[in-house]
Amino acid sequence: MFLNHKILLMTALAVSILATTACEKEDEEVAPSIASIAVTNEDFSTLEGAAIQGGVAVVLSNSNPGDPSGDYTVFAPNNAAFARLGLNSEGDLAVLNDAFLTSTLLYHVSNGNLEGSSIAAGGVSGSALGPNRRFVTRGTDVYINGSKILATDVKAENGTVHVIDKVLLATGADIVQSALALTDSKVFVTPELTFLVEALVYTDLVGALVAAPGSPSFTVFAPTDAAFKQFGVDLGVTLNVPADIRQLPKETVAAVLLNHVVADGGKFTSEMNGGIIAPLGGVGLTLGAFSNGTLTLKGNGNTSTANMLIPDVQCTNGVVHVIDRVLLP
């Protein structure tokens, strides 16, 4: 009787082991691809639409031919991250330039498996687009550039996914060329920077912000067209079109522009927090506290603060933060 009972226990154990092994095998066989994770998770529906429109959905459905592991690491913006750019649904993506969208998506991708435990402050990670991303720690939170990492190590058949709260942006061009690109509404739903570009040309400051070997890196606060129009109202001058900026003395416009440029190596929002920083114009800018991935700021001559509309745009010679007010010296 004891022997029979023992045999039954051993048989049950063997069945259990076989069943567990079969389940594990089944789990391995049905592990979703990175693209499938976006398809099956409602919080990534905008990312799914972007991946399809940008032509990377098929790529992220398969193994990575460019890495021995066959894997990718993807920092995946959730729907709220896209909404910060005015992209609240898949339909909103239709206004974007497809080439820009593809480049943006590739900036979120890297070769191989970068696990959450390997992400540390001061570290960098290459991207499929080319430019590196850097990691920043604030308290217990970890950021990639200016985007907070919300969750790590979502495993996929062809790699690893980390969830972030802001879309990573990189232009692959210097600050001036990036400003030119951002004047096109097909890059972002809003805003345009046509007044800023005109002001740079008018004041002969283009050369100072064009990348060259060994050139310094800047943090640039870029006012929108609406911000420049309000600037005109404040001065009692009508600025309807970019050329109207030439009504103002060149020296005045130059002083104002230099008040938006800081030669600090180029900082993301995650690397800033309150205090006063010194722009090239020499008059301190007052930064507000870091909150929800952005900061407010105010020039010495401003009565109202400026807000960041599109922060953390990485350029080859710095970082641009698009703002809604001109900063006065």
Account of the protein in words:
This protein is an alpha+beta fold and 329 residues long. The protein folds into 2 domains: 31-168, FAS1 domain; 175-323, FAS1 domain. It is 29% helix and 21% strand. The protein is built from 9 helices and 15 strands. The strands form 3 sheets. Strands 2-1-7-6-5-4-3 form a 7-stranded mixed β-sheet. The longest helix is centred in the N-terminal third of the chain and has 28 residues, at 2-29. Mean pLDDT is 87; it is low at 1-28.
Topology at a glance:
Layout: H1 2-29, H2 34-40, H3 45-53, E1 72-77, H4 79-83, H5 98-106, E2 109-111, E3 124-125, E4 133-138, E5 141-144, E6 147-156, E7 159-164, E8 169-170, H6 175-181, H7 194-202, E9 218-223, H8 225-235, H9 250-258, E10 261-262, E11 275-277, E12 285-287, E13 297-298, E14 308-315, E15 318-323
Parallel strand pairs: 1-7, 8-14, 9-15
Antiparallel strand pairs: 1-2, 3-4, 4-5, 5-6, 6-7, 9-10, 11-12, 12-13, 14-15
Helix pairs in contact: 2-3, 7-9
